[in-house]
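Researcher: Please translate sequence to structure tokens.
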Amino acid sequence: MKNTSRILIIALVMILIGSLTAWLIQTNGGSVKIKNVRFVGSNGIVQNATLYIPKGVTKDNPAPGIVAIHGYINTNETQDGFAIEFARRGYVVLAVDQTGHGYSDPPAFANGFGGPPALAFIRTLDIVDPNNIGLEGHSMGGWASVIAASVFPDGYKSIVLEGSSTGTYGAPDGTPTFPRNMALVFSKFDEFSALMWGSPIPVNIVSTDKLKTVFGTTEDVIPGKLYGSIEDGTARILYQPAVIHPGDHLSTEAIGYAIDWFQKTLQGGTPLPPSNQIWYWKEIGNLVALIGMVLLFFPIGELLLATHYFSELIEQPASARAITGPGWWIAALIFIILPPLTLFPFKQFFVTWKWNPTALFPQNITTQVILWTTLLGLISLVLFLLWHFLLNRKTGASGDHYGLTWGGKVSWSKVGKSFLLAFLITLAGYASLLLVAFFFKTDYRFWVFAVKPMNALQFRIALSYLIPFIFFFLIVSIVLHGQLRKEKLNLWQEMLVNWVLMVIGFIGLLLYQYIPFLAGGTLANPAEPLWTIIAFQFVALLTIASLVKTYFFRRTGHVYVGAFLTAMVITWVVVASQAIHFAF
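Model: Translation complete:
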């Protein structure tokens, strides 16, 4: 890579400026203190949380408190848009990692999703007014909030459910008097409307008996209308922002409704108009830092390749022996559509085969991902071998042309050096994240996609999932750089082509699911709301994979560095952000 030093400086500056921006916003210019706290719930399960303490709040000057709880397979940082705005208005905010999520002890779903212990803990803080505590939860975090409200009926004053419900997955049924002073922010395009309120069409929840019961009415609930009495604790209101389920986190409207409700139902704090919001600058800062981390991989790789130890890995790719003509387009189409086409049915084998979480594979979602990728990898390998032995071997193609061998043989020493090189590049990105977490108390993220440091347990878990991810990305690399490689493309052109091959299928899946949904119907496959949302993360992950794999194939002439690096980074990102379901 030309101008390695310049690109290294750009990457580091992006990380620094992005992280500094994120820190300034989440601390409101340094006026809000951010602390990491841990507390013990039932059965000795320790939960992790971020505590936001506004300036001037002390035991002699306590403030209202709010417990903010994220949804399934997220962490407390996902709620930072809400937490930042609450803290700016003088509320002490406890943004909690649910049990089995983030840095809280597993298993997931234990202790009422972590809701009751969180409410109990914030009530022990002498800087919090115990008579002015609010609960805010998104999705499964809403269930955690409702359970907390039922366990401590006198321990809170009002509640905001974001994309959530009462009477679901252990959360008690709602009534005209429970939960106390409830605002429901349920978007017009919430993918979980059937699960939450029994209506396949989100806007039609206003007509469901379940919602009418909670609102104490026999008629359709009118969005924006106040039902009941704040003074009596029976107040209810429905808001319907025009976003999707995870869109609540990127919606000034959704966050504004929560601000407005707590300003009406909690006493104290520093009132600001709900429209006065700054949280999105943290989101932008985190994104800039995230891009900087990905960019960092390339100059770090160049600097390592320039050393005597790794320099022998630098080679030009062998001449292509790929499919040409119309056959290339057929193979490319198969490569594009096979992953999204198999995602839903293959991950479902986890349920069909009754694969329970174990100490070796303790994360249900990650296990479903590797089940899908392994089966997909085996299919891709069979198709590749059939093509090679039936057609391509006749052209003189060998492992050299696929980036697998050196002079017709596998050099295990070079494979080992490739693994070490990939590890050191990953380590550089990880070290930058640790520094950012230490100095700025932030990480790399955008929306539902997050790159977080791993704790000791997550690191051990990552070792279990790394091998199947390596298998998959080696197969993908062989197909991408062996069967589908097009010659006479420069680096940027090849990156673009490979990005299209790896990512466009999932964009197509999202369009397939959302076009009928956003047009007023249901998802094309309404049984898969969760995995449809997870597909957004695949777009981000595979974008990184396509760029990294292509670059290091061009620099080394072989698939190993790119495949190992991609597997390591994706294993790290996925494991650190997923829920742990096994009780260690």
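Researcher: Any highlights?
Model: The radius of gyration is 25 Å.
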